[in-house]
Amino acid sequence: MSKKNKLLKFRENETFKCLIQPRTEEVFRCDHPLKGSWHKEIFGNDNPIVLELGCGKGEYTIELAERYPKRNFIGMDIKGARLWKGAKYANEHKLQNVAFLRTRIEFIASLFAAGEVAEIWITFADPQDGKPKKRLTHPLFLTRYRNILTEGGIVHLKTDSRLLYYYTMEVASANSLEVITHCEDIYGSPESVPEEITAIQTFYESHFLMQGIPITYMAFRIDNEEELISPEWDQTPYLQPYKTTTIMK
Questions:
Q1: What percent of the chain has pLDDT over 70?
Q2: What's the pLDDT at 200?
Q3: Is the pLDDT of residue 244 over 70?
Q4: Active-site pick, 126, 160, 185, 223
Q5: Which of 70, 119, 130, 78 is nearest to 102 (CA)?
Q6: Is 31 designated active site?
Q7: What is the DSSP string of the chain?
Q8: How confident is the model at residue 4 (pLDDT cuts 50, 70, 90)?
C-alpha cells in the first residue's frame, strides 16, 4: 500500500464515529473516558460486549455483528489502515452494534472496566516465536482479560499456529482453567465446534486454508483467581512453521 493511500485512509478514519482512536496520554497509566461507559456512550444499550483482539480489517467483527444484532462488538487493532475497511463498512451500513478501537492491546485495562466485556476473540494473532511474554494468551495478558471479563466470560482462540494453540492449552492446564472446547482441525472435525466457528472466515484464515493449513480453535474461561503462571513445556516440536506464501497486509 502506498503512503498516499494510507494517508487517505487515515484522514477518512477521522470521520468514522464508530472508530475510536485514543491518544497515548489518554491510556498510558490512566483510565480512558470511555472506561466503564461503552454501553451508554457508544452502543446505547446494555447488550453484552464482545471484543476481538488484533481484528485486522475487521471482517470477523463485522460478520459476528451482523449475525448477532443483540450483542455489541468491538474490533481492536493498532493498524489504522487495516481498521479503515471494517470501520468504513460499519459506517456505510449503519451498523449500530459495531465499534473499532485503534490502540495497543497492552492498554486494554485502561479502556474497559471490571466486568464490562462478556467475550474475547483472539483470531490469528502473531504466535511470537521465542517471545512468550508477547503472546496474547500469555498469563500477563490473561490477567488483564480476567480483570475486564464478566463472571464466566469466555476467551476464544482461533489460529493456524500450532505453537500458539498448544502453548495456550499448556497455559490453561498449568492454571487449571476451564477449557470449554478445543479442536486441532476445525474443518476436519466441524461437528466438534459451534457452527459460527467455521461459517465465518477472516482474510488470513482463507489464505491459510487455500494452502491446506489446519485451523485450530479453543474456548476457555479464566476462572482461576490466583496469580496466573507460565507453563514449563517443550515448544520445539511446534516451532517449525508450515510453508506459506507471503500475505499482503
A1: 94
A2: 87
A3: no
A4: 126
A5: 78
A6: no
A7: --HHHHHHHHHHHTT-TTEE---HHHHTTS--TTTT-IIIIIISS-PPEEEEET-TTSHHHHHHHHH-TTSEEEEEES-HHHHHHHHHHHHHTT-TTEEEEES-GGGHHHH--TT-EEEEEEES----TT-GGGSTTSHHHHHHHHHHEEEEEEEEEEES-HHHHHHHHHHHHHTT-EEEEEES-TTTSGGGS-HHHHH---HHHHHHHHTT---EEEEEE----SPP-------GGG-SPPP-PPPP-
A8: low
Indicate the pLDDT class of residue 246, thresholds 50, 70 and 90.
very low
Question: Given the C-alpha cell 489446519, which residue does it identify?
Answer: 214
Q: Which amino acid is at 69?
A: P
What pLDDT digit, counting tens, does each position of 34-73 carry? 999 999 999 999 999 999 999 999 999 999 999 999 999 9
Contact 54, 104 (CB under 8 A): no
CA 153, distance to chain mean position in Å, is: 14
153, three cell numbers: 466470560
d(CA 100, CA 103): 10
Each residue of 65-123: pLDDT tens digit?
999 999 999 999 999 999 999 999 999 999 999 999 999 999 999 999 999 999 999 99
Reading the block at residue 176, the C-alpha cell is 487449571
Bridge partners (DSSP) listed for residue 92: none
Closest of 29, 141, 12, 11 to residue 76, by C-alpha:
141
Would you say the pTM of this structure is higher than 0.70? yes
